[in-house]
Every structure is written in structure tokens, then in C-alpha cells.
Amino acid sequence: MVHTHLQFSKARIECKQSQYHAGALRERHYHDSTWVVFTLRGSCSLSMRSAENLLTPKGLVYVPAGEAHSNVFGSQGAEVFVIAIDPEWIGNRLDIVSDKAEAPRIDPAGALTGLALKIYREFRSPDTLSDLIVEGTFLELLGRWFRGECPNDRSAPLWLRQVKGLLHDSFRGPLSLDQAAQAAGVHPSHVAREFRRAYGLTIGEYTRKLRVESVAQQLVHTRKNTISLADLALETGFSSQAHMSSVFKRVTGMTPSEYRRAHGLHQSADKTPIF
What we know:
Layout: E1 3-8, E2 13-20, E3 25-29, E4 34-48, E5 51-55, E6 60-63, E7 69-85, H1 87-93, E8 105-106, H2 113-124, H3 130-147, H4 151-155, H5 158-170, H6 177-184, H7 188-199, H8 203-221, H9 229-235, H10 241-252, H11 256-262
């Protein structure tokens, strides 16, 4: 296990890069600092406020100070970049902060990935201007997050946001690019090009992401029921259990069975504090 720390003293922001081994589990805990966590490689399941969130590469999560949560890492482990700050630091710099800073949040569409990567690059290669750049970029990231105006959605035309909404409503079914384009009244090639430009994923990749996230949530929240993996595969839009298992492992590093077993563990495989 490797940890690399760097304190941007002028900005009062602490950053660290950490690697965690396969299957590491951290029981419910909390931190005194507010954390923003960016997944670089691998995958992690984060349980917070009775919700299960699957973090894959480029996943970004905001965890307020004192927020209880637990973590389970995938079969290939994970590497994460953490930005930690005193919660009072946020209130002193952002006028819009109120209860918004006390609520956890996920960046599901990757709208803020560019800002997180910018901070990470400064962390990897700091110079005399890094403090200023990191503070400004981090404030921009939080400002967009708290305001609820991720730049990708804000700049996307209404018809493109409607396509995205259609995918969320229909990801379990065989929705084609032509059907999405017809619903939006736009040519398929234009839909494909603009969707990737705005959200960083093709329509097919975004649909796959939604399916995998749905499987992850149901594996945890239906574990007391008798739903089979074969039924779950069909319910979430996969052609078979084998297809679901293959895609799920490619994205998360764990098969659905491994993921389900991991969330049934009661003893931590790693006592080192995990986000």
C-alpha cells in the first residue's frame, strides 16, 4: 500500500494519492475534514446515507466532514486522489455555502472530471504557482457542484438533455441511437457527436454505465431477497447472466457474485483509514 501526501500550505489544502489492495473493506467511519475523492484506477463501492454508489475510474465524490460511510474495493484494488480541507475553509470562501456543503454528492456524468484532473496535475508536478492554481480550481469545482450547474449539462441544448433523460428512463431496454435521435428530432450522427462532446461518453458507453450502476445497487439492496443473477441481468438490460458478469467485472474489477460477497463481509481486510 502506497500513500503520497502534499500540503498546499498557502491554500490550506491537503492532497494525497493512495493505492489500496484488492477486496479492502473499511467499516462505517467518518473524517474530521471534508474530502473530495477522485478515482484514478480500479473501483470502489461507497455506502453513504443508505445509498450504494459505485465509483469507477474518473468517478468523483464529495464527502462532508463527519459523514458516516463505508468502502469496499474491487478485485483489482484501486488508486484514488484525495483533496482534504477544513469545512470552515469552504464557508470562508464561498458565499453560496449553507446546507449544501453538508450534503454528500456524486458527479455521475463526469462533468467535473477536467477540474479534478487539473488539481491532480499540480499535485504531481508542483511549482511556485501551484498553491494559487489549486485553490482557484478547487473553488471553481465546489462552486459548480454546490450550485448544481455542471458545465456539461448547463451548456448542452435542451434536446441533448432530453436524450440524456431518455437514457436514464430507458437504459434497461434496447434503445437505439436512431430511436434517441428520432425522439429528439435531430439527425443520429449529430446526436452521437454532441452527446460525446458534452458528456465524455458515447451513448452506448453511458447506457452501459447506467446498467452497471443499477446492478451494483440491486446486488446490495436486494441481497436479503431471492433475486437470481440471471433475473437481475435481464431486469437491467443485459442479454444474459454471462454478459452481465463480463461487463460488470470489466468496469468494477469484480464479478457480481464477488461484489455481493464483499458486501456481506463483517471484518475489515484493511485497517488503514480509507475514504
